[in-house]
UniProtKB/TrEMBL annotation:
InterPro entries: Aldolase_TIM (IPR013785), FAD/NAD-bd_sf (IPR036188), FAD/NAD-binding_dom (IPR023753), NADH:flavin_oxidoreductase (IPR051793), OxRdtase_FMN_N (IPR001155)
Protein name: 2,4-dienoyl-CoA reductase
Coiled-coil portions: none
Oxidoreductase listed as a keyword: yes
GO molecular function: FMN binding; iron-sulfur cluster binding; metal ion binding; oxidoreductase activity
Organism of this sequence: Arenicella xantha
Length: 675
């Protein structure tokens, strides 16, 4: 056992079985669960993480019946005929010495299906279908369906099940008056409303016997106005233990809650305090979760008594070897989850297969592999941004001789801008990982060096990869050359002075980042739990229902107006699961947003514009920041191709319309694997 993280790596005795450490790989829906043909890929995905040392894993959610579907014909375990495909998963995990539980998840009113049901006929704000209120008989039948699904999971070789009672899904919908206005034995008093999860746990335990793990995902912080009180949460926790649960896992926030819970802007370990509070009331192990992405944070939470186990879901997407690396005492080699949601949750909620921005192999373990090169080549990579870093390190890992050039004095490219944005400090971790990877793989790094076509041709490289990034697109209106007109690079990287009144031209991801940067002062709330709670209205005293109070954001030090040419919703291209966070954060800072704009000129008075050919308007401002897109740097391409040098374009050099780190890194990985 590592002496650095003794608490995280200590075994956990559950009585009838022992977990080899305190790390739980939490449930994530990857999309591989939905089709029988994808189960070999799902098996490989879990096997790699079992091999990486995870103590216990939980699958994505499987519905106990068709009414509980997340989507039509999606993941479900309700029939004996569905068991066989799961045996591939459990066998693969057990062969690697791991343990795995199946999550039983009934979507309730969150289901994207006309068959969805709930406690009452109250539509969810995040799905299109109004649920049917489940009849009293239907509730009893559903309890049996949970027990049946657990029994089938046991037959499929799973070590246990997790009952999803959190995040606003079916069970949660029975617990609170926000979604339960029933008058039968499943509504009214809290004792009635909490009967559903208790009866489910009792039925499951009776069906599977004593030597089977039952995790209950308990919503400890609803973060909605009509959520549970702390006293109700404790009452349910005690009842769940008495009903036969083995472990209580912490759930934080309904999907419709207006508080970020797992995005990168949330401080590390921000919600461990609520797990610690529950631990005082039950005797079975309690799991802390949400935004725990490094072994020290996990170890410290257990050490101070806030939890018995730590759930880390996306960190195991980012690095399947997380636990092995922690045990080896080499945290610097961990590819850290940055909480971006771009390739995991955004994919899930868009019906795509999940993966990971910083690790494109996640969920592609059978398709994207880095075999040793049979004929090593000399390869030059131009540009040490995300695309160049991923390509160079994969190539070197495979045995190629790689020279990586960048005219800057540091690696990272556009990540060096992103890391300075409040709420995006995790980007420092990705650069730390790549710095380690460069050393580990033997990439020859050349900083402060401009690679010329002549030099590359004379060096006789077998192949050249152009990943030289982008140049900000210049604004072409009268006054664009004024001293008070700055690019986003001038503002964030160059730290040029910015006035008190600011107009931001362009409202893509970069425009929102610049607005975040300029609307904050002092320490970022993403680095301080108390500041985050105040900023977003999390009531740590739990005096209010759902621990939800009015937000008290720190005022912006500047008057900021964002403008975009296109009409319609601003920030439409932002991440599906994080865009609302950026819009809400700027709204709390009183940032003004104007769409459908035609720019005319900039003068001493400010920025002149019209909206859809309307009356001329003026924003009186001290500074104009231009975030109007980018252009690719491909000045080397023509000369290299003329000299018959095999040349590849990736990242911003290939497509610079809107910066996309997910695409850039994946292109680097895929190209690095193919040469």
């Amino acid at each position: 056992m590592s002496t650095i993280y003794p608490h995280l790596l200590e075994p956990l005795d559950l009585g009838f079985t022992t977990l080899k450490n305190r790390a739980l790989m939490g449930s994530m829906h990857t999309g591989l669960e939905d089709k029988a043909k994808d189960f070999p890929k799902l098996a490989a995905y879990f096997a790699e993480r079992a091999r990486g040392g995870v103590g216990l894993m939980v699958t994505g959610g499987f519905a106990p019946n068709v009414e509980g579907w997340l989507s039509p014909f999606g993941s479900k375990l309700s029939k004996r005929s569905e068991v066989k495909r799961h045996l591939q998963v459990t066998q693969a995990v057990h062969d690697e010495g791991g343990k795995i539980c199946l999550q039983i998840l009934h979507a309730g009113r969150y289901g994207y299906s006309p068959l969805c049901v709930s406690a009452s006929n109250i539509k969810s704000p995040i799905s299109p279908f109004r649920p049917r209120a489940l009849s009293t008989k239907g509730v009893y039948r559903t309890i049996k369906d949970y027990a049946n699904s657990a029994s089938l999971a046991q037959s499929a070789g799973y070590d246990g099940v997790e009952i999803m009672g959190s995040e606003g899904y079916f069970i949660n919908q029975f617990l609170v008056t926000h979604t339960n206005n029933r008058t039968d034995e499943w509504g009214g008093s809290y004792e009635n409303r909490m009967r559903l999860p208790v009866e489910i746990i009792k039925a499951v335990r009776a069906k599977v016997g004593s030597n089977f793990i039952i995790i209950y995902r308990l919503s400890m912080l609803d973060l909605i106005e009509q959520g549970s009180t702390w006293e109700e949460v404790v009452m349910l926790g005690k009842a769940i233990e008495a009903a036969g649960a083995t472990i209580i896992n912490t759930g934080v926030g309904w999907h419709e809650a207006r508080v970020p819970t797992i995005a990168t802007s949330v401080p590390r370990g921000a919600f461990a305090w609520i797990s610690g509070r529950m631990k005082d009331h039950v005797s079975i192990p309690v799991v802390a979760t949400n935004r725990i992405n490094e072994p020290k944070v996990a170890n410290d939470i257990i050490a101070r008594g806030d939890a018995d186990m730590i759930s880390m879901a996306r960190p195991f997407l980012a690095d399947a070897e997380f636990i092995n690396k922690a045990e080896a005492g080499s945290p610097e080699s961990i590819n850290t989850c940055i909480g971006c949601n771009q390739a995991c949750l955004d994919h899930t909620f868009s019906g795509k297969r999940s993966t990971c921005l910083v690790n494109p192999r996640a969920c592609y373990e059978t398709e994207l592999n880095y075999t040793q090169a049979t004929a090593p080549k000399r390869v030059a990579v131009i540009g040490a941004g995300p695309a160049g870093l991923s390509a160079a390190t994969v190539l070197a890992d495979r045995g190629h001789q790689v020279d990586l050039f960048d005219k800057s004095n540091e690696i990272g490219g556009q990540f060096n801008i992103a890391k300075k944005i409040p709420g995006k400090e995790e980007f420092f971790e990705t650069l730390r990982y790549f710095e380690h990877k460069i050393q580990e793989t033997g990439v020859n790094l050349h900083l402060n060096e401009h690679a010329s076509a002549e030099g590359l041709i004379d060096a006789k490289y077998d192949e050249v990869i152009l990943a030289a990034g982008i140049t900000p697109r210049a604004l072409k209106i009268p006054g664009a050359d004024r001293a008070n007109v700055l690019s986003y690079i001038d503002v964030v990287a160059g730290e040029k002075p910015v006035g008190k009144r600011v107009a931001i031209i362009g409202a893509g991801g970069i425009g929102f980042d610049v607005a975040e940067f300029l609307s904050h002062q002092g320490a970022s709330p993403s680095l301080n739990i108390e500041s985050f709670n105040r900023e977003w209205g999390v009531d740590k005293s739990y005096a209010s229902r759902g621990a939800c109070v009015y937000a008290q954001p720190t005022p912006s030090p500047r008057e900021i107006t964002m403008l975009q040419r296109t009409a319609g919703k601003m920030g439409k291209g932002l991440g599906k699961t994080t865009g609302w966070i950026h819009r809400a954060a700027l709204k709390m800072k009183d940032v003004k947003m104007i769409t459908g704009v035609q720019y005319h000129k900039i003068d001493d008075n400010g920025l002149h514009f019209t909206i859809q050919d309307g009356e001329p308007q003026l924003i009186e401002c001290d500074t104009v920041v231009v975030c109007a897109g980018q252009e690719s740097n491909i000045d080397l391409l023509q000369a290299l191709e003329a000299a018959d040098v095999t040349t590849h374009l990736i990242g911003g050099s290939k497509l610079a319309g809107e910066l996309d780190a997910k695409r850039a890194i994946r292109e680097g990985f895929e190209l690095g694997a193919s040469i």
